[in-house]
Amino acid sequence: MSFKLLSVVLASLLQLAAATTTSGNSSCAPATCGNLSITYPFSLSGVQPVYCGFPAFELTCADAGRAYLSRAFRHRLYRVLDIFYGNDSFVVAVDVDSSYAGDERCHVPDFNVSTGFSLLPVNVSAAANTNLIFVYNCTLPRNASVLLRPPCTRPTIGAYVPDGEGNAPPDVPRNCSSVSVPVRRSSFRNASEEPAREYKRLIDEGFVLEWSPTAAECDACRGRGGECRFVELAFQCICSDGRPCRNSRGKQSSI
Q1: Residues linked to residue 69 through DSSP beta bridges, in sequence order
Q2: pLDDT in tens, 113-122
Q3: How much is the pTM?
Q4: CA-wise closest residue to 132 among 115, 149, 146, 116
Q5: End-to-end C-alpha distance for the chain, whole angstroms
Q6: Within 10 Å of residue 157's Cβ, how many Cβ atoms?
Q7: Each residue of 140-170: pLDDT tens digit?
Q8: Residue 52 backbone phi and psi in degrees, to 5
Q9: Residue 169's closest CA among 141, 137, 149, 205?
Q10: Which side of the chain, N or C, has fewer Cβ within a 10 Å radius?
Q11: What's the rounded Cα separation, in Å, for the pair 136 and 143?
């Protein structure tokens, strides 16, 4: 066997190991990527047909079992850490290694992360998240509380969480450029924790996104032994004979 062919075979085996269906030949059988169980309204590219979930919620399973939103505006930008089907939410972390402003020591996003979801059918949870603001391209005092720790190669990057009225700390100049990243409130271990020291962990632990509730119609479908699908911009409940179940809603959606 040639080296090239062997490489192709090994790559295929690794992909199958990272992303596998959990049962049977049902086209929309639950799939896994790492520790994620993937089912409607999500689908796993290369394992499940795209109609197994909302097109915007198609996931790609990368090496090492990491799941990414396939339809982000940059490759492997948003990693999906967890999915909570019971309350229509999931946790996403921005991959700063693929998109950052800063230097080799300090990787911080180079865009307002929330705006990257403006065309997706999700909301950044206001209850679960707060904004971590990064400032740069300005002169920060050497002893400023917002300076990233450990120091960056260019000691001009800071991070803070706005106060209850959205204000920056007094030692942040008004002429700074800035980007914001949602982070989970639960990631803060105590009220005195300094974001400038914990920014890497806060970013890595991600933030919560919510989608429009769909659980009721899908649960009812599964209760009848059907399979949830999203076909031609509408929810469909497909019975075991491959046809739409009786009273399948077929309700159009903007998703």
Answers
A1: 59
A2: 888 888 788 9
A3: 0.81
A4: 146
A5: 46
A6: 26
A7: 888 888 988 877 776 678 899 998 888 899 8
A8: -75, -5
A9: 141
A10: N
A11: 16
